Each structure stands twice: as C-alpha cells, then as structure tokens.
Sequence to fold (424 residues):
Amino acid sequence: MNILVVGGGGREHAIIMKLAQSPKADKLYCTPGNGGIAKYAQCFDVKATDIDGVVKLAKQVEADMVVVAPDDPLVLGMVDALNENGFRAFGPDKAAAIIEGSKVFSKNLMKKYNIPTAKYEAFSDAQKAIEYIKTENKFPTVVKADGLALGKGVIIAQNFEEAKDAVTSIMEDKIFGNSGANIVIEEFLTGPEVSVLCFTDGKTVVPMISSMDHKRALDNDEGLNTGGMGTVAPNPHYTKSVADECMKTIFIPTIEAMVKESRKFKGCLYFGLMITPDGPKVIEYNCRFGDPETQVVLPLLESDLVDVFEAVIDEKLDEMEIKWKNQSAACIILASGGYPKKYETGKEISGLDEKGQLENVMVFHASTKSENEKLLTSGGRVLGITAIADDLKSAVDNAYDSVNSVSFEKMHYRKDIGQRALNI
Ligand code: AMP
Ligand code: GLY
Fold:
C-alpha cells in the first residue's frame, strides 16, 4: 500500500514509524513532514491545512490510504474531500470533528446525553458572561474559547478580576481570533488527569493504553501551558475500575451520542479525563491522536497499525483483537529555550545518527529540518525521546540517559517527567 500521512510533528513521526513496521506498507509519504520524518517517508511541501493540495497529492502518489493526523484539517473537512475523491482516509469527517472544533458543541452534547463533565454555561455575549461569573462567585473558574486555539484556549481564573480579563481578552480583544466568538465558563475540577486515546469506527470503541501528559513548561507543573513537555504510559491513575467506569459512563455513551446526532465518529477519539472525587469526568475531547501521547502509546502497540486503520475505515473493529505490549513508555520533549513564548530556531542539533535516531530509544522529531547535511531546529518542541522498558522507572531513566547524548543551543526540557506517576 501507498500511505500518505498529513501533518509534520512528533505525533506524525510516531505514526509513520509504526506504519513502517507493517509488511503492508510499501511506500510512505508525508506532508509537510520534517527533517526526522524524511528519513522514513518521502516528504512534500503541501501544508497540512491545504485541502485541495492534499487531494492533489493523494492522486499524485496514488495513495491507498491517507491518514489525517492534526486537528485543523479534520475540522476543516479534509477527510470529506478525500472521500469525495475516492480515497480511503483515516480520521473523522467534518461533522464528527466538531467534537473538538467547538467546545460549545461538545459541552452541549455531554449535557444532553448525561456524560459526566464540569458544569458550565456557554455565552456569545461578553457582558452576560461577566454577569454570570459575578453571580456564581466561585473561584477558580475556567474560561474556554469555543474553537481551536493551539491548545491555549483555556484560562483558569483565580478571582473575579482575572475571569473578567479572560472574557474580555478572548471575546473582545480576540486573542484567539474567531475561536473566541463564543466561550464556555465552567466549574473548576480537581484530580489527576488521564489521556485515553480510543480507536473507534462509530460502532465499537477500543481504548488504547492510557497515558499522562505534562502540560506545563517547567518542573513541578510550574510555568505556562504548552502543547505537552513529556508523557508516560500507562497512567497509574487509570486503574481497571476507573477504566470500566469510563467505558460505561463516557466512552460508549459518547460514541452512541455522536451516532444519534448523525455525526458518526470514525478515527482516533481522544478523551482528556479528570479523575475527580465524584468519579471520572471529561475535560476535553480531541478528534485526533494526542501529541506527545502518541509517542508513548503507539510504541506499545503490538498489532499492525495498518490493520487497525483498515478496520476503522471499514467499520470492522469488532472483528479485530488489538494487542498491546505489557511494558511502559516514557517520552521526554526537548524544546527550544523560551518555548512556549518567544524562541529561536535554526540551531544545529548534535548527537543523532544519520537516521536522526539514537541507540536503544526512539527519537520522534517534532520540528527539525535538514539543511546542507545538518539537522536544525525549526520550532518550539523539537524532539521527543521515547524509551520502552518493563517498568515505568526504567523507561524514564533510559529516556533521560539518552537525552544526555543530544544537544542544541538553549535546549530546554523538564527533569521530572514521570515523577508524579512514580510517586503515587
Ligand atoms: P484543555 O485545552 O481543555 O485540555 O485544557 C487545558 C488544561 O486546563 C487541562 O489539561 C486541565 O489541566 C485544565 N483544565 C481545563 N478544564 C478544567 C476544569 N474544568 N477544571 C480544572 N482544570 C481544567
Ligand atoms: N497533548 C495534548 C494534546 O494533544 O492535545
């Protein structure tokens, strides 16, 4: 099969490395890809959001399957366009991707179908939102932009002034652009967070191994929110009884709700969960694989990923047994100094072999480019180093050992990835 993957970060690199293990994958293509992905797949310069460009590329490479990995092309309807042109595509169509594309939609869905989540109200008027915050008078409170905002559209306000500023900056100053035309104000929940990515064909839902993200930039969960500074899998908070409860009260009800709304979801549905004192609740849905969750989850997959993608597309997931390795994984993100604020790019990366890899671990490139035989940094999150071992502590230790072999100017990474999981 010729397989085209749309996207160009660490997540896409992890998907491609897994697809490359399949005897069914003959040729792998990626757009736009990056310096590390280019060692495993032929890369093109069509943007991930360029729907016509990707359809044209799928024709050019005679793609037997297209995997659309990032949120924005899914929300824009890339899978619909690919299907209309006769291509088999992995990922939800536009109608289903709204589960991530609009927080107002997803919150209303959960309310309508009794799926546990934080209490909330949705607003299209800033003044009304501010009045509501005043009347509720409960802090911290959470202010969320309705649309996609690069994972940054959530503000946790500690008092009325902060909440009012959040509403004004999102709705009036439009710090997240049109994503902030509507907002959700919700109750602040507490408890450990768990990411559960699920394969679903709209009828059957198969959770992958659970994982734990580390969203803040600095050790001890301090500093700004980022796209994710590291992950471990499995997540020790996701016990068998929590998993059973999630299946019954969250996963199956969500899949069924989407069918009832005529928005059958096919692809990878990501449940961002909080295990609150009142049980697991949904913090967010994503219509795609997580980044950097994918970099710890897919390396633990035993089954052939091409088979899984085919089963999802053909709605035959119930006929397949998906197998996992009985091991643990840890991924440490190496970022540019300054990220998620201003940072420099174009720094030479040293320590990697000619495949952009290291011995004994997997190196997933998030933003690198090759220039004159050199590998350079090209974004905020640069590399993810993933180690697999029989237990989590060894996975974390092995990943950190390998981090020491890589360097670039102003390289920044967290030193405590996995500690929260090891200390429970
Ligand atoms: P999201 O973009 O929805 O994943 O939100 C980013 C982060 O904000 C989450 O991972 C949580 O840590 C935090 N967060 C979002 N919603 C809530 C909430 N209702 N209560 C507490 N923390 C939240
Ligand atoms: N790591 C969080 C996300 O992919 O949204």
